[in-house]
Amino acid sequence: MNLVNVNDLVTVSDQPDPTAFVSLVEQGFAAVINARPDGEEAGQPGNASESAAARSAGLGYAFVPVTGRTITEADIRAFQKAITDAKGPVLAHCKSGTRALTLYALGEVLDGRMKSEDIELFGKGHGFDLSGAAGWLKRQAGKAPRVRGFYDARTGSIQYVVTDPATRACAIIDPVLDFDEKSGTTATVHADAILDYVRAEGLTVEWILDTHPHADHFSAAHYLKQKTEAPTAIGSRVVDVQKLWKGIYNWPELATDGSQWDRLFADGDTFSVGSLEGRVMFSPGHTLASVTYVIGDAAFIHDTIFMPDSGTARADFPGGSAKALWNSIQRILALPDETRLFTGHDYQPGGRNAKWESTVGEQKRDNAHLSGMTEDRFVALREARDRTLPMPKLILHALQVNIRGGRLPEPEDNGRRYLKFPLDALEGAA
After folding, report:
1. Nearest to residue 174, comparing CAs of 150, 209, 225, 222?
2. Which end of the chain is more exposed for a tag (fewer CB within 10 A), N or C?
3. What are phi and psi of 167, to 5 degrees?
4. In this predicted model, what pLDDT tens digit does every residue of 52-82 receive, in sequence order?
């Protein structure tokens, strides 16, 4: 193991032997960061082995697997968080140490502590070639829109702020209103973090967009509209979802014309975020009303395709269809291979860091449910898998809020709000 000290907190290395982790504690290390995906070569220890060895040695451990061509800002921020959480010196490694140092150096550039033109010289000073990191920065500089993801660990959801760099106009996509089902408490922690970011970056919110009525969290669209006065929008087929759930909830007074939003988008509709054009793609399957927003070179694909190691979204909610989902996915994969795809959820398989950005090319090549798949095989796989999945724990809570644009129930005569639960309404739920 070749240790290269970067500073008092960070040391990078090639692949360590997990049996040596005890000696790392003796050398003063507090944690190990594994930046190497499993299965790169025969005999590689892997995440499970390293995690167990770190635990046994009393070391903290984080799994931030990256390859040179798939590093995203989410990985860089996860790497930084692992350093902060360690509360002491960390050893970060990959196969050679290059990717570990790349993650560190890119974070320094993004946070303004290093100039982008100095990154290769920084690498040479530590014995590494960081030309790949320099290339990453150049590619990022040429992309529009700029996308910031906000991860909600409770629900595995990702919220997005999508910014036109030329005008600093932005759209907020799929914001989360916090809800604790045990206590019935609502809060605006995640939505306020988005507002803090908007203020800090000097952005103007032009749209608050939902991709569909979510089943696992409350939408913060209404709250953010009150704070920003920006219009809200969703796909026009939300009216079908409203009619479906109006019956499930036995809710005769529910308006089912979509009037809870400022605009209902049909397939092919366009809108603008500053100087960037946005386009709407109807993409049902997960729900009747799901849409994808394509803005510049970025597509916000909600619950259709997850990260390549996680496959695709379920299609067994009321109104869902695995066949419709397959057709929606094919439309998304028909976008140019370099199109950036931003997913709606990530559940951190294997304990890795949360990820949400891929490309059309990566998904075609690596997605566990799509690579080499036919429609019939996909539908059979998706339906079989869905039969084993329990319903989201918040589906009955969330839908009565989200089919009203994120509005909570009106207070009753005692000033309190109440949710309504239909019993035995979701037939066939696992």
Report:
1. 209
2. C
3. -115, -10
4. 999 999 999 999 999 998 999 999 999 999 9
Backbone angles phi, psi at 108, to 5 degrees: -65, -40
* CB contact at 8 A, 292 and 284: no
Sign of CA dihedral 63, 348, 344, 369: positive
DSSP letter assigned to residue 334 = T
Tokens coding 177: 């209103």
- Whether 55 and 61 have beta carbons less than 8 Å apart is answered as yes
Rounded to whole angstroms, how far apart are CA atoms 162 and 149?
Answer: 9
- Residues found in the chain: 430
- Rg, Å, the chain Cα set: 23
Provide the strand spans (E) within 65-213. 90-93, 146-152, 157-163, 169-173, 176-180, 185-187, 204-209
The tokens of 100 are what?
């570990």
Stated as kind and residue range, the H or E segment containing 46 is helix 46-57
Asked if pLDDT for residue 231 goes beyond 90, the answer is: yes
- Average pLDDT over the chain reads 96
| Residue corresponding to tokens 């089943």 | 215
pTM here?
0.94
Q: What per-residue confidence (pLDDT) applies to 429? A: 72
Task: Provide the β-strand partners of residue 358.
Answer: 341
Residue 98 phi, psi (nearest 5): -65, -45
Q: How far apart are CA 396 and CA 320, in angstroms?
A: 16
d(CA 246, CA 140): 45
